[in-house]
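Re: the 179-residue chain
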Amino acid sequence: MTERRRVRVDGKRQPTLAEPSAPADCSCPRLARDDWHDVESDWSDIAFLRTSVNALLGVPVGYVGAKTNLEAKARKLELSVPDDAMLLLGAGRFRRPLLLEVDGATPGMRGLFFPGGVAYTRLVEAPWGQMQKVVDEMRDRSTQKYGRAPADIWVWYLTCRLCSQERNFETLLIAHYKE
């Protein structure tokens, strides 16, 4: 597959996923492409705190506040939130599930979600207005790869409003297959 080259109207080349840049005050996660793109992971030992956010025609509202509440809940349960913890957004037109990865959880703890199974991940560019297209492509690709549709497709936005354009709206898509 050839690398796409984006050129702004002013003639300056935009960086690709291979050469990300971001403002100095941005603390968004940066994933190594070899570790995440077209990779299958075992989720038998991963745990998440779960909540949901309202959505207006599929666009999440209150995302940052929900993340803050999940982090507070993790502290209350004496769980740690790893550096660059996954913050996964699920599907929904009016309500969307939101998961925050935590460490130190044991099965049976109240309020935790242990998804189990396998996760197939792809690191993609998902500019505004393209999310449905890239999710549909992920669903098709993972269905072809595994012979069945995934139980869920999760989205991890890796950029914020400060660095989205510089990093070409870098996003991790996760096709989750339950056991």
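The chain has three helices and nine strands.
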